Amino acid sequence: MSDLFNKLLILRTPKIGPAKYADLLKRVGSVGAVVDFLNPSQDARDAVMREMERANDLNIKYISDDDDLYPNALRNMKNHPPVITARGNMKTLKKKSVSIVGTRHATANGMNFVADIAHRFAENNFAVVSGMAIGTDTAAHRGALRAENDSATIAVLAGGVDYVWPLENEALYYDILARGVIISEMPVGFVPITTNFAQRNRIVAGMSDTFILGEADMKSGSMITARFAVDFGRDVWAIPSHPSDSRAMGPNSLIRTGAAKLCSGVSDFFVCENKSPSSKKISEKNETENSLIDALGTIPVSESVLAQVVKKTVPEIKAELVVLELQGIVRKVDGGYIRA
Length: 340
Prior knowledge:
There is one protein chain. It is built from 14 helices and 11 strands. The chain is α/β, with parallel strands linked by helices. The protein has 3 domains: about 1-55, no CATH class; about 90-270, Rossmann fold (3-Layer(aba) Sandwich), CATH 3.40.50; about 275-340, Winged helix-like DNA-binding domain superfamily/Winged helix DNA-binding domain (Arc Repressor Mutant, subunit A). The chain has a 9-stranded mixed sheet, sandwiched between helices. Helix 10 (about 220-230) links the parallel strand 7 (about 210-215) and strand 8 (about 235-240). Helix 1 (about 5-10) packs across helix 3, helix 9 (about 195-205) packs across helix 10 and helix 13 (about 305-310) crosses helix 14.
């Protein structure tokens, strides 16, 4: 049997994760010897074979930690996944990357701020890594996809790379698939459970040398990811917010304790260049439309608030929302507009 098949047989054995895998390999000597030691059943072998066949049908690639495509930062992480699955544009995995996460219940301003940072990183040939959750993660992916560069973003899933979650982000999933890559350490076809999201967060933190935290409550998955990043010795940044908002407690606490640097915007990472008047006119409409989309999530936002965020009049916002609604990008609900 192939080396990959043997690796998957070991990893798909109950109670064997990256740490146990590494320990078995060290004690027994080779993946083939470990398989002989574990003596998996024929049912287990058949299940792995079916998984590999499904992966082949869906053009999903298995990437071992000795493969050139395996992300360098992740490989250097203690107890990294021995094998990941990837679907999409594989060359994205070889780019420099930045990890950006935050709350699912982000404010419009918070999402817009994150999207702008992600956009600038993507423009500078970085891949933006996040977890494809609604809110901040979505803003990070969408901001990156606004760049003209290909392979702009990496989504790390808690389930199999073929399992779209959350369902609200189905359109985003396929946008990332077209221009970036989706990865996971879980089996193809796997439906995630609660504990898998912390595993996913560990990979998001380990994928990049630079980590940025947006709005986040103290007891949140985003803060777990930030703590992983701190433990891994990453260059950690946090976006501050108003102290009265619970979503500010996470990033503000990291800044206060010195665990993270204060992130004030793209100027912390790149030299800001002033656009010429002619280029500004060309991009103004697209930038406004993109900012409008980035300001929306699953929480309704009123036209007046959107006007303040995008710095347009309410009549102008209404006109643009009508167009976006006809395109199926946004939807009107009680209390305002949400992303469709």
